[in-house]
Write a structure and sequence with these properties.
Blueprint (H helix, E strand, L loop, with lengths): L1 E9 L5 E2 L15 E9 L27 E2 L4 H7 L3 E2 L3 E6 L5 H13 L5 E5 L4 H10 L7 E4 L4 H11 L3 E5 L16 H18 L2 E6 L12 H5 L2 E6 L6 E9 L7 E7 L2 E4 L3 H6 L9 E8 L2 E13 L7 E4 L3 H15 L6 E7 L11 H13 L7 E3 L2 E2 L5 E2 L4 H10 L4 E5 L13 E5 L2 H7 L1
Parallel strand pairs: 6-10, 6-11, 7-8, 7-9, 9-10, 15-19, 17-18, 19-22, 22-23
Antiparallel strand pairs: 1-2, 1-3, 4-5, 11-12, 12-13, 13-14, 15-16, 16-18, 20-21
Helix pairs in contact: 8-9
């Protein structure tokens, strides 16, 4: 016999409680608890015989062979995955509605079936006819691509075994349900149970499974936080819905580097790879305009040049406005305070707006000096020059701290045709002089302002 009980789960982080609470103790969010029914079985499973139980082995006996990867022929996707798809892995792909998750995965399926790899595309949201319409637009029609429009996990497991799939797409995890659970699809219990079954299927049958997940208004994957801990890789699809640029960012990857970024351009024929992100982000930059600065940032294993724009104007309010897009708001406020205290600029009477052109979002502290110079350039209404790249982290004392991979950043700037580079004095290296650039080394915000 099975006994039923009711528990309360937090929709944001999956925190479990025996009673309803207004604020979640785990993630500190309000009004996120929902009541769900849990079935507890009293029947104890038979114990596994001693001779059949797994036994610990020495570390020397573990095979250290490289993972067997499948290349998708989409260079940017392979980069984010760490070199290709690992068999038996479970990958979670999240993003806003309409950002291009299904489009990217269908293009991946098109390339995989062309290499005679068996692929099963499971959709719980769209019918097979709707998927075929998208496949026609993406030129992904192929008789070898198998489709299944169902949300029952039992049918999905049977189909994967009958097709002998090597790669399987689940679109999306919030629509799938397990018959053993009475809760509605998308609930915390269902998502956790379905993900657990998919993980067992991936490991036992050596199938690479891609899960599409919806996101909350904060931009995180909807459902319990344990969902991200259960999978092998977490990929986020980012970008402005009104624009054409998309960024695929790796937040977690057990088989490769994290914080890798793949850049795509959304067109009427699907997603196209952007092989030179620096050129894309700098396209259309105004000439000799104040408040415009180019910085070199590191995303994963490559350097990317981006444009930081700042606008300072006289305020009409008693308290000036501060707005940032693509940058941490608190970090921008901190840099404005340093600029006032250490740089001698009185900005209490002006509004300040800071933006990253192209829809990019960065957390790299090496862009601090670029933000400070962009704000100072707009405040004084003087251009820093079109051939200058700025690199450096700013401390509260106004000092310019060194950055990692300085040579990689400067080489990317030289490759894009820039003639001058401002960087921290602690990053001085004789090898950089061979690049033929005019290097300006600074140690404080005041010195940087005086040299520009």
């Amino acid at each position: 016999m099975a006994k039923e009980k009711h528990v309360f789960y937090c929709k944001e982080c999956g925190y479990e409680s025996a009673k309803w609470m207004g604020q979640c103790p785990g993630c500190r969010q309000w009004n996120t608890f929902v009541e769900e029914k849990v079935t507890v079985s009293k029947n104890k499973e038979k114990l596994v015989p001693l001779q059949d139980r797994p036994k610990p082995i020495s570390m020397d006996q573990v095979s250290s062979e490289e993972e067997d990867r499948i290349e998708t022929n989409i260079t940017e996707l392979d980069r984010v995955l760490g070199g290709g798809i690992v068999k038996g892995s479970l990958v979670l792909v999240g993003g806003d509605p309409g950002i291009g998750k299904s489009t990217l995965l269908l293009e991946m399926c098109r390339n995989l079936v062309a290499k005679d790899i068996k692929v099963l595309y499971v959709s719980g949201e769209e019918s097979a006819a709707q998927i075929k319409m998208r496949a026609e637009r993406l030129r992904a029609l192929d008789a070898r691509l198998m489709l299944l429009a169902d949300n029952d996990m039992d049918n999905v497991e049977n189909a994967a075994e009958n097709v002998q799939a090597e790669v399987m797409i689940i679109d999306s995890i919030q629509t799938m349900e397990s018959a053993e659970i009475d809760n509605v699809p998308g609930s915390v219990t269902q998502v956790r149970e379905v993900t657990s079954r998919l993980m067992q299927l991936a490991k036992q049958k050596n199938i690479a499974v891609f899960i599409v997940g919806h996101v909350t208004k904060e931009g995180t994957v909807a459902g319990p936080r344990t969902l991200e801990h259960m999978v092998d890789s977490v990929l986020y699809f980012e970008g402005d819905g009104s624009g054409g640029f998309r960024m695929l960012r790796s937040q977690k990857n057990r088989f490769g580097s994290t914080n890798e970024v793949g850049v795509f351009n959304m067109t009427d024929k699907g997603l196209e790879e952007v092989t030179n992100p620096s050129e894309m982000f700098l396209n259309g930059r105004p000439k000799e305009s104040s408040g415009s600065v180019v910085v070199s940032t590191i995303e994963g294993t490559r350097a990317i040049l981006i444009e930081i724009q700042a606008l300072c104007s006289d305020t009409s309010f008693s308290m000036p406005r501060r707005t940032s897009v693509g940058l941490d708001f608190n970090r921008v406020n901190l840099l404005i305070a340093v600029l006032e205290k250490r740089g001698g600029l009185q900005m209490s009477g002006c509004d300040c707006y800071v933006n990253i052109a192209g829809g990019m979002r960065i957390d790299d502290p090496s862009a601090d000096l670029g933000i400070v110079m962009a704000i100072a350039s707009s405040f004084r209404d003087r251009s820093v020059g079109d051939d200058l790249v700025i690199i450096g982290e700013v401390g509260l004392a106004g000092e310019i701290r060194g950055v990692r991979n300085a040579s990689m950043r400067v080489k990317e700037a030289a490759k894009m045709g820039y003639k001058r580079c401002m960087l921290p004095k602690s990053n001085y290296d004789k090898e950089l002089d061979k690049l033929g650039m005019d290097l300006v080394y600074v140690s404080s915000v005041g010195e940087a302002l005086s040299k520009l």
